[in-house]
Amino acid sequence: MSETWDRLQLTLAELGIEPKKSLGQNFLISDLVIKKIIQAARETTPGFLIEIGPGPGALTNHLRSLTENFQLIELDHKISDYWRKQGMNLIEADALQMDWSDLLKKERPLVLVSNLPYQISSSLVIERSLDENPLDRMILMFQKEVAQRLRARQQDELYGMLSVVAQSFWKMETLADVSPRDFFPPPKVASRVLTFEKKESPVSNKKRYLKFVKAAFLHPRKLMASNLEEGFSISKEKTMEALKKRQLSEKARAGQLSVQQFVDFYHELS
Fold first, then answer.
1. Using an 8 Å Cβ cutoff, are 144 and 190 in contact?
2. What span, in angstroms and rounded, lies between the C-alpha atoms of 164 and 185?
3. DSSP line for 116-185
4. φ, ψ dihedrals at 173, nearest 5°
5. What distance, in Å, lies between the first and last C-alpha atoms of the chain?
6. Which residues, 6 or more positions from 136, have their beta carbon under 8 angstroms from its beta carbon?
7. Please, what are the averages of pLDDT over each run of 10 residues along the chain (270 residues)?
8. Edge-to-edge strand ranges of the sheet holding 170-178
């Protein structure tokens, strides 16, 4: 087994805890994957570093050496207490429910690293995409299918609202594929680590743009014109006219449009 596995067992014994399924706790134990994540974080030379869900510290003990400006966010009380006793700056909170405004004012480059609980991964990407002063870089673990969805292109069966929103605001790359055996306990699905580099926002009102994209995919099998009429109060005629002007079918569905086409349509139709 790995050195990380040995340290994990000692830490769990010290804390007197076991991974909680309710919190999506699958602790990373692969030294190779950890090395890749740390290297990706180091390349940015972070001015301020944030980790969500440090758990027993597979990543934390390496990340803390990259900068003095290091913030942990942890929901589990026992684990939070453990890191406080280690002298770490820690916010005990749900990363989806807490106020990020102060963190987003920290030193730049501002970097987020996390072996995310699967149940919050998509929502976290959406939330951080909507920030007016966004993070500079994110290095995040996902269920493999979610990672594929994030990077899917038009016409792909996985392409949808999440794909369009993420790709509108981030340049994404695959850092590593991770098998179930690289975790304790092993999840039932494979995982993938993605890196996110912020892009200049193509829209001035991110929340309105999100509403537009959500409306376009409201019923994936329905015409985009029908969806936008129902979800964004744009007449079918106006959408069809815009489609026709770009030599696209008036019967186009949202999944047939590229990310850039979504941005262009948003500017014209909203």
1. yes
2. 33
3. --HHHHHHHHHHHHS-SS--SEEEEEEEHHHHHHHH--TTSTT-SHHHHHHHHHEEEEEEEEE-GGGEES
4. -140, 150
5. 56
6. 44, 108, 109, 110, 111, 197, 198
7. 82 86 90 97 97 95 96 95 96 97 97 93 97 97 97 97 98 98 94 98 98 97 97 97 94 97 96
8. 89-92, 70-74, 48-52, 110-114, 137-143, 191-198, 170-178
- Quick check: 58 and 37 in contact, CB under 8 A? no
Locate 34 and state its tokens. 């950890």
> CA-CA distance, 100 to 112, in Å (whole number)?
12
Contacts 24+ apart (CB under 8 A), 225-230: 225/250, 227/254, 228/269
Tell me the C-alpha distance between 4 and 183, whole Å.
Answer: 10
- pTM as predicted: 0.95
DSSP string, the chain: --HHHHHHHHHHHHHT----GGGT--EE--HHHHHHHHHHHHHT--SEEEEE--TT-TTHHHHTTT-S-EEEEE--HHHHHHHHHTT-EEEES-TTTS--TTGGGSSSSEEEEE---HHHHHHHHHHHHS-SS--SEEEEEEEHHHHHHHH--TTSTT-SHHHHHHHHHEEEEEEEEE-GGGEESPPSS-EEEEEEEE---S-S-HHHHHHHHHHHTSSTTS-HHHHHHHHH---HHHHHHHHHHTT--TT--GGGS-HHHHHHHHHHH-
Which structure tokens are listed for 2? 């790995």
Q: State how far the Cα of 167 lies from the Cα of 239, in Å rounded to an integer.
A: 22
